Amino acid sequence: MRRIVTALLVIVVLAGLSTATASAQTTTTAPSYTAALEARLAKEWQDPALANEIVTAMSPETLASFEAKVPQAQVATSPLLAYRPNPIPAKTIDSLIVYAFGNRVDATGATTAGPTNEQLAKAVKTFVAKHRVPVFAQQEVAQYLTGVPNVTSIDPVVGPDGKIVYLSTAGVADQAEQKGATGTVGVVCFADHVGRCVLTTQKVFGAKGVGIPKGITLPSTYDPQSGQPWTRDRKSYLQTDLVGRLATL
């Protein structure tokens, strides 16, 4: 009788081991949040090496903040991590908002618009030549739009001390709305700035009526002499932009 009981126990134990082994073989380990974030950014930026470098350098606190706002299950699709949102048909656009990017500071300390904003103005001129819509352009771009009809300049705010207050992307969107931008809004900006500009503009005008005009060519070459250090090269800008998006939601 003991031999029968012992044999049965052995069979039960072996059966349990077999089941555990089978389960271990069919279970895969989920990728870490860091790996998921890196994969999404590599796709958005079309630069896996840069995505790896920037994500690897992120602090645990920053990663935790991202995970709190964008859980791992949403990393692959979240608009917060989009850098090339889908364009909208040019013929549907009622207003155009133009965001500046960088500037130049001369030897005397005076600030000028710089070449990137001149390129943005050229893109606007090409668009409005075919689509006559009101343009609400940040001052650095607006100064190059002389002769273009229906342009409203979004100017910097001057503080009580007489100094110019930095005008954020959100500040430009707010001023554009106050000055009359309405309807379906087309966004024109630097290529790597697109995702944040669209997200920020959507907070003011609504998610369905905002986008980059289809067919427009946006400038993408960084100005190493820009007066804003974070706009001098792609790594510096994307690091700054990515962390800045945490305030978008």
Overall description:
The chain is α/β, with parallel strands linked by helices. The protein folds into two domains: 38-81, no CATH class; 90-229, Rossmann fold, CATH 3.40.50. Helix content is 44%, strand content 10%. The chain is built from nine helices and nine strands. It has helices at residues 2-26, 33-45, 48-56, 60-69, 115-130, 139-142, 169-178, 194-205, 234-244, and strands at residues 95-98, 104-105, 111-112, 135-138, 151-154, 157-158, 164-165, 185-188, 210-211. The strands form three sheets. The protein has a five-stranded parallel beta sheet with strand order 5-4-1-8-9. Helix 7 packs parallel to helix 8 (194-205). The protein is globular. The protein starts with a helix and ends in a 5-residue tail after the last helix. The model is unreliable at 1-30 (pLDDT under 50).
